[in-house]
Amino acid sequence: MMCQNLTRTFGVGRTAKNTLAEVTCTVWPAARIAVTGPSGSGKSTLLHVMAGLESSSSGTVTWPGLDGHPLARPGRIGVVFQGPSLVPALTVSENVALPMLLGDTTRSDAAQRSRVALDRLGIGDLATSLPEELSGGQAQRVAVARVLAAAPRLILADEPTGQLDHQTAAMVLDVMLQTADELGAALVVSTHDPEIAKRLATRWTMRDGTLLDLQPVSASEPR
User: Fold this and answer.
1) pLDDT digit string (tens) for 55-102?
2) Which of 30, 24, 4, 6 has the alpha carbon at shortest distance from 223?
3) Strands 2-10 and 17-26, how do they pair?
4) Can you tell me the distance from the alpha carbon of 31 to that of 128, in angstroms, rounded to the nearest whole number?
5) Which of 19, 28, 26 is nearest to 2 (CA)?
6) CA within 13 Å, CB half, 109
7) Which pLDDT belongs to residue 141?
8) How many Å separate Cα 202 from the centre of its chain?
9) CA distances for 168 relative to 5, 29, 44, 59, 143, angstroms
10) What pLDDT, on a 0 to 100 scale, did the predictor assign at position 71?
11) CA 115 distance to own-chain centroid
């Protein structure tokens, strides 16, 4: 995945604000990238534009390793959102299976992959619970399980451990790294936690919508 001179502007005239300012970066296969920086620096916006969920005001994003725009190729990119993202009327297991069922995965395969992902994250016993019965940390682990179960080629995680204690956060990152290795997927994680950031091979720092200290990762083809 390649971003070239991305800007994202909100507002007009004197109130206009750039949340992304001429951002250029590349995510290669098997990349392990931590995106750090203060709140409001543009980390979430960058991940959303990378995922194709938001459009840039200028510049280009291409996904050569995904065979086209991600919205036209469901399941190629998995996004763990920072805020609540579970469907209230569905059980935990149904929430995890939903993206797969919206694709071409059979119901039985989706159920099996949901069980495996939930067990890996230590919440298999919550499979029949509703989101309203979960703590914030449990709901966040369900959101991670939903992405990993779908077997994406690019995983974008926006503060995936923000509501977790240090021990659980380390376990969740272990599972994300292991799953990314198994899938041959790239992993980009925005985080305020230095312990999480230092476990990823490459660190990008954002400030005022600009990427600083961008470290390239060598590989064959960008995601």
Assistant:
1) 999 999 988 877 666 665 667 899 999 887 899 999 999 999 999 998
2) 30
3) antiparallel
4) 34
5) 26
6) 10
7) 97
8) 16
9) 37, 27, 22, 38, 14
10) 64
11) 20
In sequence order, the 6+-apart residues with CB closer than 8 A to the CB of 63 are 1, 52, 69, 70, 76, 77, 154, 223
Reported as type and span, the H/E element at residue 3 is strand 2-10
pLDDT reported for residue 215: 64
Residue 117 structure tokens: 């992902």
- Identify the residue whose tokens are 């799953």: 179
Short-list 4, 59, 41, CA closest to 205: 41
CA distances from residue 175 to 76, 144, 182, 223 in whole angstroms, order as listed: 19, 9, 10, 21
Whether the Cβ atoms of residue 74 and residue 147 lie closer than 8 Å to each other: no
